[in-house]
From TrEMBL:
It is found in: Cell membrane. It comes from the Bacteria. GO terms for cellular component: plasma membrane. The keyword Glycoprotein does not apply. This is MFS transporter. It is a multi-pass membrane protein. The chain crosses the membrane at residues 38-58, 70-91, 103-121, 133-154, 160-181, 201-224, 236-254, 266-283, 289-309, 330-352, 358-377. It comes from Kitasatospora aureofaciens. Residues 4-382 form the Major facilitator superfamily (MFS) profile domain. One of its GO terms (molecular function) is transmembrane transporter activity. InterPro entries: MFS (IPR011701), MFS_dom (IPR020846), MFS_Efflux_Transporters (IPR050189), MFS_trans_sf (IPR036259). The lineage of its organism: Bacteria, Bacillati, Actinomycetota, Actinomycetes, Kitasatosporales.
Length: 398
């Protein structure tokens, strides 16, 4: 494994920690600023929307410089955003810090995916992308619980200071370990935009929004669902999120292992399995053991789709992968924001804390339909049209 992948994984670890740790610290932050918990929830929504906007924006700005330089600038931006969050005297400034941080997120994973894929042999590309995303999944097992613990014990500002320090380590790692690849010839915005004319790229992104939305419909409301429906204590929620992180880690490894060889079958299996497990979650949430097992499965099936979907976008965006790759990272976060909003609607409608699981199951099932449609389109494109000139001639009789 090239050491450069380790530097990318450290950056991914920092980004994953800052994105998810906020969910465990919302009550403290809300209390400190004197705002309600739903208002503090804007720190989650604002971050997700910042990723959606920042992914294409920062990538377009980065087409003029080398990918290594851009990755270093993104890590610097990430560090500054977390420092601003750590010292923000008011809630609006804290929100600004979150948005600054989120601008680095999409472009880092988008450009990082392209760099990771270029560091290895063609048949190992999905595995290399998965290695970088391992940083994001390990963040959920180690970074988020540790950050939550530090935030509850010493204060949430310490957590964000520690994450800023992680950003600095990632920046130095990229500076030392990632090879300086010259800016790709013809990496112009117009060329990068051509990828979006390909229906397969758009279908892969729609699968990302819906499939990942399925995961987040359930996970966003995991704390009230586990405490009110399942009967877990508040303290147990941290460990249930660790379990979700373990599922993500295993699913990401699985997705990276099989996506290089059986990409579409991998997507059918994971999206179909995810839809089924989320539908069953409405029943399994009523028992502590089955609820915990389901959380692990949701993490595993959800994250097993990440390397194949990211590779699908890279494969289809011929010669213009950078912007498409970053926009697909934005699509994951668009799925998060959409699912959290839809989940909130069904809870507000009085359908109960397990209702978001039905929303998730429907989103994952819709992603499966798109995967089948995408494969059918591809088969049709591969089948050559009959050539009238090649029609068999009837021999003339003399």
């Amino acid at each position: 494994m090239p050491l450069a992948l380790l530097a990318l994984a450290i950056g991914a670890f920092g980004i994953g920690t800052t994105e998810f740790v906020i969910m465990g610290l919302l009550p403290q932050i809300a209390g400190d600023y004197g705002v309600s918990v739903p208002t503090a929830g804007l720190l989650v929504t604002g971050y997700a929307l910042g990723v959606v906007i920042g992914a294409p924006l920062m990538t377009v700005l980065g087409t003029r410089i080398s990918r290594k330089t851009m990755l270093m600038l993104l890590m610097a931006l990430f560090t500054v955003g977390n420092l601003l969050s750590a010292v923000a005297p008011s809630f609006p400034l804290m929100l600004a810090g979150r948005i600054v941080t989120s601008l680095a997120h999409g472009a880092f994973f988008g450009i990082g995916s392209v760099v990771a894929a270029e560091l290895v042999a063609p048949q190992k590309k999905a595995g290399a992308i998965a290695t970088m995303f391992t940083g994001l999944t390990v963040a959920n097992i180690v970074g988020v619980p540790l950050g939550t613990f530090i935030g509850q014990a010493v204060g949430w500002r310490t957590t964000f200071t520690a994450v800023a320090a992680l950003g600095l380590v990632g920046l130095l790692g990229i500076a030392r370990l990632v090879p300086a690849v010259p800016r790709p010839e013809g990496a112009h915005l117009r060329r990068e935009l051509t990828a979006f004319r390909n229906p397969q790229v758009l279908l892969a992104m729609a699968m990302t929004v819906l499939g990942f939305g399925g995961v987040f419909a359930a996970i966003t409301y995991i704390a009230p669902m586990m405490t009110h429906v399942t009967g877990y204590s508040d303290g147990a929620v941290t460990w249930l999120l660790v379990l979700f992180g373990v599922g993500m880690f295993l699913g990401n490894l699985l997705g990276g292992r099989f996506a290089d060889r059986h990409l579409m079958p991998m997507l059918y299996g994971t999206l179909g399995g995810l839809a089924l497990v989320l539908a069953l979650f409405t029943l399994t949430a009523h028992n502590e053991i089955t609820a915990a097992a389901t959380i692990l499965l949701v993490g595993a099936l959800g994250f097993a789709t990440v390397p194949p979907l990211q590779k699908r976008v890279l494969d289809q965006a011929h010669g213009a992968p950078t912007l498409a790759s970053a926009v697909n990272i934005g699509a994951f976060n668009l799925g998060n924001a959409l699912a959290a909003w839809l989940g909130g609607i069904v809870i507000s409608a009085g359908l109960g804390y397990t209702a978001p699981n039905w929303v998730g199951a429907l989103l994952a099932a819709a992603a499966l339909v798109l995967a089948l449609w995408s494969a059918a389109l591809e088969r049709r494109e591969r089948t050559p049209a009959p050539d009238p000139a090649a029609a068999p001639r009837i021999p003339a009789h003399h």
